[in-house]
User: What shape does this take?
Amino acid sequence: MSSKDRILSRIRRAVGPPGAGPAEAAIPRDYLPVHGTRTPRQRTDLLAANLTEYRARVHRTDEHGYREVLDALLADARTVQLPPEPGFDWRPGPATTCTSAHTSARDLDRVDAVVTGCALAIAETGTLVLDGGPGQGRRLITLVPDHHICLVRVPAQVVDSVPQALRLLDPARPLTWISGPSATSDIELDRVEGVHGPRRLDVLLVAPAGG
Assistant: This one.
């Protein structure tokens, strides 16, 4: 019997007879779903601290003030990409707004910035999760432009941990997990940003008015 035959034989034994699905083994999930108990404010503070650690720029604002923050961040932008259904009441002033769901990668490469919402944010890891919902648009629009601005509704969209997030997310959706600007490093650990996605990431933590 050749090595190939042995490998295929093991696969057949693991999969079972034709038409039978693979046996589902019970997976122990006795790990801690969250490390400690936090108030909504503590959860938001931890998210902000971890986002900053990952070199994202964090801005705290509310429903009345986020438009001014966006205007300031995009003052020099000539073109701004928005998702088809932004979910926030804002339009750039002098900039050209792109909202087409079919914008090509070549066109997106000429876009200065993209503004989206998110599905949720994870405090313990400083991670934003996008799932392609109406307020986020296609994954492509957050990967090609050099500047991504993401609005997070706090505390409603903030969870403590990855296990909590996984229970709320639909695995069938196109999930994008973002922890800071896109970055990589070589064997000498020289960090280079903007290789696989936006070079700059601004996160607006938007609290309810008066909250």
User: Anything to note?
Assistant: The first strand starts at residue 57 and ends at 62.
